[in-house]
């Protein structure tokens, strides 16, 4: 008998029918002999609705109260799901994040888990119950209710799986797994049977929307195998686990992301300390800088370009006004209409020529590359946002991702 953590996202528990279907599945899992800890998200768009309400009554909702409000969404789903499980004759107990022992730091809206004291969950399991835990929430070291950031239920599930020593963490969602590309852009995209943690991390970080980035980091650090699968068809989905368990494909997927804007600081003096000044100022303002490219210097001056999330652009431009003066730069410009296209694959490490082929394919589509960045298993190009769909489709085809890899 193994222990499984099963996480159900918002659409999986979106209405009473869905909640009953999830309860049936939990009963099936128990009948097959496994213990189950369940983590649920808020029903459907509840979190968005609550956020809207908050902004309706306040121009800048207080962080502590906002967390108190948002955690109500998950409370609704845990209690309803337990009622449905109990109706099927199986004992079940609901727990808020706080009751489940999820202890976090004090940063409201993006709290980090610092400890999990899961005794109550262990007791519930020992008593033969299904434990149903509210995702996305915890209690801070100063005893306030906190949330873990959007998509945080994935992180709750992985943290519990790690602490309880679960055999796997199943993430149930409205798609049947992780695909070689977004099927809305590439109808031929295939579901991947396996991915390594590192590949999944790169995909989540570059626009793959299936798993929250922090949950994958957690899973990798604690070696928790993830199984991403559909709560609509219940078919086997994508396993995310340690490298070496499977053969490495050269390329596993193409991702895209249109959530960033590009900022360029022009003609800054090329001397030590300039980059430090620019990025220290941004960091102190809490701006999340992603890609950074610095040009070759000519006549003692250089351009530095970087990308930031759209919703941090206004703040960034504000910081740049001062930075330009401090550094004696000629000025700065920005372009919100960019997109990033990335190729991810663990086999890239040992196969030369992937970058060259990627650039040739983009050239063949007449796509101009504005910035390039790489890791050992990823190549990303920033392009005009209008070119993104064409670039993704062309790369998917040229790297034969529509075919089963050898
Ligand atoms: N309900 C939260 C959200 O919508 C957490 C989650 O779904 O994982 O972000
Ligand atoms: Mg979610």
Briefly, what is this?
The chain is of the alpha/beta class and 406 residues long.
In terms of topology, how is this protein built?
Elements: E1 3-8, H1 16-31, E2 35-40, H2 46-57, H3 63-87, E3 92-95, E4 102-104, E5 113-116, H4 119-126, E6 130-134, E7 137-140, E8 145-147, H5 153-164, E9 168-173, E10 194-196, H6 197-205, H7 213-222, E11 226-230, E12 238-241, E13 253-257, E14 260-269, H8 274-284, E15 292-294, E16 301-309, H9 313-327, E17 331-335, E18 338-344, H10 354-364, E19 371-375, E20 378-384, H11 388-398
Parallel strand pairs: 1-2, 1-9, 2-6, 3-6, 4-7, 9-11, 10-12
Antiparallel strand pairs: 4-5, 7-8, 11-12, 13-18, 14-16, 14-17, 15-16, 18-20, 19-20
Helix pairs in contact: 1-3, 2-3, 5-7, 6-7, 8-9
The structure holds aspartic acid and magnesium ion.
Magnesium ion binds next to loops.
Outline the biggest β-sheet.
8 strands, mixed
Main β-sheet, spatial strand arrangement: 3-6-2-1-9-11-12-10
Helix content: 25-40%
By DSSP (H or I, 4+ residues per run), the number of helices equals: 11
How does the helix and strand content classify structurally?
A: alpha/beta
List low-confidence stretches. none
CATH architecture of the domain at 3-174: 3-Layer(aba) Sandwich
**Mean pLDDT across all residues, rounded?**
95
The CATH class name of the domain at 3-174 reads: Alpha Beta
Could you state the CATH homologous superfamily of the domain at 3-174?
A: Acetylglutamate kinase-like
Strand content: 25-35%
| CATH topology name of the domain at 3-174 | Carbamate kinase
Shape: globular
Number of strands: 20
- Which molecules are bound in this entry? aspartic acid, magnesium ion
Radius of gyration: 23 Å
């Amino acid at each position: 008998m193994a222990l499984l953590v099963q996480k159900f996202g918002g659409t999986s528990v979106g209405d009473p029918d869905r909640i009953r279907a999830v309860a049936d599945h939990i009963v099936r899992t128990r009948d097959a002999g496994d213990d189950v800890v369940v983590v649920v998200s808020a029903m459907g768009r509840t979190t968005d609705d609550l956020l809207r309400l908050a902004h309706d009554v306040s121009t800048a909702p207080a962080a502590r109260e906002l967390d108190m409000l948002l955690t109500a969404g998950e409370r609704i789903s845990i209690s309803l799901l337990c009622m449905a499980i109990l109706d099927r004759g199986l004992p079940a107990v609901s727990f808020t994040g706080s009751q489940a022992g999820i202890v976090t730091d004090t940063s409201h809206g993006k709290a980090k888990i610092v400890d999990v004291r899961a005794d109550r969950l262990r007791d519930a399991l020992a008593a033969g119950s299904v434990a149903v835990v509210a995702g996305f929430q915890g209690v801070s070291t100063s005893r306030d209710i906190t949330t873990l950031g959007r998509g945080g239920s994935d992180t709750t599930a992985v943290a519990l799986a790690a602490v309880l020593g679960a055999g796997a963490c199943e993430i149930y969602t409205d798609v049947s797994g992780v695909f070689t590309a977004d099927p809305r852009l590439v109808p031929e995209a295939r579901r991947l049977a396996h991915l390594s943690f590192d590949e999944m991390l790169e995909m989540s970080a570059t626009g793959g929307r299936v798993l929250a980035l922090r949950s994958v980091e957690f899973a990798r650090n604690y070696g928790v195998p993830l199984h991403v699968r559909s709560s609509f068809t219940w078919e086997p989905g994508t396993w995310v686990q340690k490298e070496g368990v499977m053969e490495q494909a050269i390329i596993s997927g193409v991702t895209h992301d249109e959530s960033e804007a590009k900022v360029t600081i022009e003609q800054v003096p090329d001397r030590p300390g300039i980059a430090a000044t620019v990025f220290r100022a941004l960091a102190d303002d809490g701006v999340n800088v992603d890609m950074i490219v610095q040009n070759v210097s000519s006549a003692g001056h250089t351009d530095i370009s970087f990308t930031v999330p759209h919703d941090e652009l206004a703040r960034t431009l504000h910081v740049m006004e001062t930075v330009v003066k401090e550094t004696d730069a000629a000025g700065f410009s920005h372009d919100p209409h960019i997109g990033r296209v990335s190729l991810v694959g663990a086999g890239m490490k040992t196969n030369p020529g992937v970058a060259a082929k990627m650039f040739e394919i983009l050239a063949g589509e007449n796509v101009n590359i504005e910035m390039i960045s790489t890791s050992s298993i990823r190549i990303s190009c920033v392009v005009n946002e209008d070119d993104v769909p064409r670039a993704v489709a062309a790369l998917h085809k040229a790297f034969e991702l529509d075919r089963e890899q050898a």
